[in-house]
Amino acid sequence: MIKVIEMAHNSYRKLKEKTIETALFLSALSSVLITIGIVVVLSYESFGFFKEISLREFFTETQWTPLFAEPKFGILPLVSGTLLTTAIALIVALPLGLTVTVYLSEYAPHKVREVIKPILELLAAVPTVVYGYFALLFLTPILQKFIPDLSGFNALSPGIIMGIMIIPYVSSVSEDAMKAVPMHIREGSYAMGATKLQTAFKVVIPSAFSGIAAAFIIGISRAIGETMVVAIAAGGMPNLTANPLEPVQTLTAYIVQVSLGDAPHGTVEYKTIFAAGITLFFMTLGFNILGFWLRKRIREVY
Amino acid sequence: MVKELKAEVKKLNFYYGGVQALKEINLPIERRKVSALIGPSGCGKTTFLRCFNRMHDLYPHNRYEGEITLYPDNINIISPEIDPIEIRMQISMVFQKPNPFPKSIYENVAYGLRVRGTSKRAVLDEKVEKSLRGAALWDEVKDRLHHLAFDLSGGQQQRLCIARALATDPRILLFDEPTSALDPTATSKIEELIIQLKDEVTIIIVTHNMQQAARVSDYTAFMYLGEIVEYDKTDRIFTAPSNKLTEEYITGRFG
Lengths: 302, 255
Ligand SMILES: Nc1ncnc2c1ncn2[C@@H]1O[C@H](COP(=O)(O)OP(=O)(O)OP(=O)(O)O)[C@@H](O)[C@H]1O
Ligand SMILES: [Mg+2]
Description:
- The structure holds two protein chains of two kinds.
- Chain A is an all-alpha fold.
- Chain A contains twelve helices and no strands.
- In chain A, about 75% of the residues lie in helices and about 0% in strands.
- In chain A, helix 1 packs across helix 12 (about 270-295), helix 9 runs antiparallel to helix 12 (about 270-295) and helix 11 (about 250-260) packs antiparallel against helix 12 (about 270-295).
- The longest helix of chain A has about 50 residues, at about 1-50.
- Chain B has helices at about 45-50, 85-90, 105-115, 120-135, 140, 155-165, 185-195, 210-215, 235-240, 245-250, and strands at about 5-15, 20-30, 35-40, 60-70, 75, 90-95, 170-175, 200-205, 220-225, 225-235.
- In chain B, strand 7, helix 7 and strand 8 form a beta-alpha-beta unit.
- In chain B, helix 4 (about 120-135) crosses helix 6.
- The two termini of chain B are about 35 Å apart.
- The interface of A and B includes residues 188, 193, 203, 207 and 209 of A.
- The structure holds adenosine-5'-triphosphate and magnesium ion.
């Protein structure tokens, strides 16, 4: 009798376990399926695009004017606009982000850190549209005082603002990495007569390198995908240039522009959204693979 | 033989915040000899050792009282007027757990010199080789000086840390249980090395292992509850200790 109850109890428990396991599996599966779905739709729609426009034109043509009477479909101006603003953002975020990180992790007394960290997090909570108008209406006019050639819309100003925008992401992830470096490694450096600064740059940063690299990859991915700031302040003009003083358009800003317009479903103009989208997808994927590879290669040592 | 002192500890007190960890310590440190600090866990050996290179200055609320005089210059190591970095430039330390930096073998050894502003390749090359030879590691690593230090075994890593500490020609070398993370073979290599090194440098070693103290040291101080209970020539401490507590400790009755 007891045996039977026990068995019934056992099979009930097994069923419960199985149900929970299945539910968890399904929810994990759904996120994978959604990702696959996005890739499929992107590929399908851009496949339609590439039936009409050759890959050759797509990658070698230097103009992107799909909405003109005589349309040209070269993706390079949008890619260059994206890379240019991202590069400017990185040039700003790398030194500033590292400085903030080193200060927070190695220098700041506990109390100061408790004040600065929430402020940084607040920086991350500001809506990007605010950053966009800040770039257009505040930073650009100031920069124009120093650089008379700077046009009203340009790559420089939104690039700088994006750099500032990604500092909170970069510094919070890289600070975690630096904090995780064990104290006895730092002590080894101090015991050799090193200063705080030498210890931070010669020992702590190299020890936390993979985490810091990952932090910057996250930052880069955000800058590549950032839409509002560049849509507002960069000018919306596809422009194959490396000159930060000129107006440019990024992949994301272009997608917004066409999505908001009235390109009829099924036309080539409409499909350009997906062509730009899949290009963006591959760029971000590329950076994530780079980040993954960096983390693998620089073996975690502690 | 004339005894020559390298340092002398006088009435040293040390406090972690409000807690006193060292009490009225007096101790001579003989030049070019190995002095061992032994005693039960928590008695203050590490705390005492870390006074010599001012490691306690890295953390807030730590306080020293008294004097550790370094000879022949007659400076007080723990005086607040003396920059701890100056002290650490002259007194090196090897830690309990090997702690190489995430750099090549070569750069690990060159670290102290680079920190002092030396960047001439020839100077560095010569010092790195000399230090690695001094740490009995040269033959094992001479073909892979530019490999990451983490590729070495634990014992090799510890000898690398010794080479790193030797590269700056320290006047005193501090060891805090340098073999507690190592196997017996690696341990006996390090012990041989310590015996060789005392020809050139004054050594203070903290150890839990009484056989180790007996094997490598010339003088031994027995510590208990933050105080020095007995200090004497090592063979005297281990054959005829004058204090009952010391005798109980070395015969393994407590600790
Ligand atoms: N950072 C610290 N803050 C406060 N108290 C400490 C600190 N470090 C050590 N102590 C205390 O000081 C005393 C001496 O510790 P210490 O580490 O010097 O002992 P030890 O002899 O080296 O012991 P062991 O043989 O276990 O390494 C202990 O009571 C310990 O709890
Ligand atoms: Mg200890």
